[in-house]
User: What shape does this take?
Amino acid sequence: MRKIFLSVLLILLLAASYGAGFGTHWLISKKSSPQFSLFWEALEILKRDFYKPLPDDRQITYAAIRGVVNQLGDPYTIFLEPQARSLEKDTLKGEFGGIGAWVRKTEDGRFILTPMDGYPAQRAGIKDGDELIRVDETNITPEMSLDQVLILVRGPIGTYVNIVVRRGGEELSFRIRREKIETPSVEWRLLKPELAYIKIATFTERTPKELEQALRNLQSQGASKLVLDLRGNPGGLIESALRVGGYFLKSGVMLHERYKDSLKSYEVEKAPMLVDWPMVVLVDSGTASAAEIVAGALQEAGRAKLIGERTYGKGSVQWVYDLSDGSSLHVTVAQWFTPNYRKVEGNGLEPDIKVEPREGTDAWIEEALLHFGKGGAE
Amino acid sequence: MKALRILAMALLAGVLSTASFFVGMGVGVRQVPIPSPIPMATPTPVPTPEEKVDFSVFWEAWDILEREFYGEIPPAEERMYSAIKGVISSLGDPYTSFLNPKQASLARQDITGSFEGIGAVVDMKEGRLVIVEVIEGQPAEKAGLKSGDIILKVDDKPIENMTLLEAVLLIRGPKGTPVKLTVYREGLEEPFEVTIIRQRIEIPTLSYKMLDGKIAYIKLREFNEIAPKKLREALKELIPQKPVGIILDLRGNPGGLLSAAVEVASQFVDKSPILIEKTKGGETKLFKAVPGGLATDPTIPLVVLVNGASASASEIVAGAIRDHGRGILLGEKTLGKGSVQQPFTLKDGSELRVTTARWFTPSGEAIHGTGLTPDIEVKAGEGDKDVQLEKAVEYLLGLRK
Assistant: This one.
C-alpha cells in the first residue's frame, strides 16, 4: 500500500519537472482506451459535419471536463477556467496587484471604471464613469466577460498597465503602476466600553493576521468582552479558520474530516495571541462552511454561545486542484464534522440563543448586549 | 496513508509554489498542488482515428475525480457520454444531440410517425422547454396544458441543460404509464405539477374541406412520408370543384422530412429553387421543384396560415410559396428552425444527431433563428373563434371583388 503510494508520489514529482512531456505520454495511451474511442469518434463527426466551425481545442477540452463534472451532480465540484481561477486566488488571498478601480459592465456591453479613493487609478486621473476601451494591446469589446477584463487590468505589483478610456468624446491614455490592493475580511470597533465587536466577512489567507491586529487594537482600548460576528460569512479557507480558532481556544480538536477511505482530525493551531475574554458568536442562515467550523468548535468547547439562527449547513470539504494549464478543479473530497462529531451538512448548527430579525434594529446585537448585561449583573 | 499523502502534497506544493484556494458560495477548501495523471488499469491499445487535440488537461481532471471525489462516481462509460454531451452543449445548438444506446433505440421506434406520449409539440427556446402546441383531444390538452407553458421538470428531473431530444424522450414512454410534469406558466406565482397518462398519439396527417363551397381548406399536421400523397389526393378532389382560393394551414406543424417539404411545396410552386441548403464550407445546394404540381395555377390564390409553432419543413414550404409569389403568409411569425440534423450511429449503438446544414428560402432569407414574418399579421383569437382562418377567408373573398 505504502509502496504504491510512494511510486505515485514519484510520478507526481516527475510530472512537476517534466509536465508537458509527461502529459503527452498519458495522452497517447489513454486516447487509445477502447472505451474512450467513442468520444473521438463523436468528435471526428462533429468536426467534419457540424454546420459551423467547432470551438478551439482548448474550449472543447473544457467543455468535455464540464460534461463529466456536471454529471456528478455536486454543486461544489466545479471546473474553473484559468481566468476565473486567477481571480479566485486573488479573492482568497485577500490582495492582488491592481490599479484600485471598480469595473462594471453595462447592459450594452461597455466597461465603466470607478476609481477607489487614494489608489493608483484615482491618482493617475481616472474619473468615475470613464469607459475602458483598451488595456495594453487589447481592445475591450462587448463580447468580453468582466473576468477577462479584470485579468487584463490586474498584474504583479510594481508592473505598469496602459489604459485608454473614453470620456465624453475624447480618448485618454494613462500609464498606471499597479499596487497592492487589499480586500480586508475583518472589521472591528468597540460597541461600548470593554465590549469589543469583530466581524469576519470571509476566511482568506490574511484573515488571521487581520484578526490579530483587531484584537490587539481592541485590547489596547480596554476591551475585555467580545462579540464575534460570523453572520453572512460564506466560509473560505479551512486553514484560515483553524488559525482563527487558535486565538480563542488553547487546545483541542477543531474538526474531523471523513474522506472516502480515511478520517482525519485537526487540532487547534496555536496562535501568537490567546484571548480569554468572555465571548458570543453571532450566526445566521448565511453562516456557512469555514464559518461553521469556527462557530461549532467554539460552541462545543464551551467557549462561546451562538446567538442567532440555525446556520447554513455546508459540511463538505473541497480541495482545489490546479491543472497544468492554469485551470482548476474543485472537488468535494470529504465531509467534515464538529469536534463532537455533529454532522453539519444539511443540518447546520443550532444556536444557543435564538433571535428573530426585527424591523428597524439589529436584534442580534441587542441580544448580545443583553447577554453581557446579564452576565455583568450576576 | 491519507495523512502521508497530504503531507507529501503539501511538500510538492512548496516546490511548485502554487497556492490554491477557493471562496464564494460557502465552500471550505484546502490547498493542493498540481496533480498529474496517475496510471489506472493499463488500457488495451486499439486503433483509433489520429487525434490531434491535446487532451492532457481533461485526463488530469478525469483522474482527480476518479481518485478523490467523495460521492459516488458513475461508470467510466457514462462519464465518457457526459464528456461528449459537454462538448455538444458548448456548440450552442439545441438540435445537435447525443443519445446513449438505450435512448437511441427509443428514438428509432419513433420514425413511424405515431408514438406514445402526451400529445404536445415542444421546442427548446433559450434553454427552456416550451410547449408550442397542445394537440386537440390529446392527453396534454385534457390535462389543461397550454401553448406557452414551460416544462421545468419531468418526473422531478430538471430539464435544464438538456437537449430537446433528451427532454422529449423523457416525456414519451409506453402508453398507460404516468408522467409528472412541473410546469411554469406566465402569470402564475408558482410552478404547478400535473400528472398525465401517456397514450398512443396518432395525428391525422392531413384533413381538408370546402369552406362555404368556395374555398379549399387543407390542414397539414406534419411532413411524414405519406404527406405528399395525401395532399395530392386532397387536391385531386378539391381542384375540380373550382375553388376561388386555397388555404393551406401549417399552424402547429413542427416539420418532418425534407423530401416531403419539397414535394408539398411543388404542388403549389413550379419555379425553382424550393429552398437553398448551406453546409459548413459555405457549400450551397439548390432543391428544385418536382414537376406535375396540382395547384400551381396562379389564378387560384393561396393563403398559407402560419404561427409560432410552424417549424422546419413548414417554413420551407411557406418560404417557397411566398418568395415565388404564389401566395401570402397570414398569421404569426414562424418558429425559425431552419436546420438539418443528420443521425450517426456510433460503435456501441449510441447516436449522434448533428446539425449539418442550414436552410434558406429561395430569396436567400435564413429560416433559422428569426422565423418568417407573415405578410398579414393576425394574432390568434381567444376561445374557439379562429380569427386567423376568418381573416384568410375574408382576404381570398376580397380578391375576387
User: Anything to note?
Assistant: Chain A touches chain B through 108 residues (CB under 8 Å). The first helix of chain A runs from residue 2 to 17.
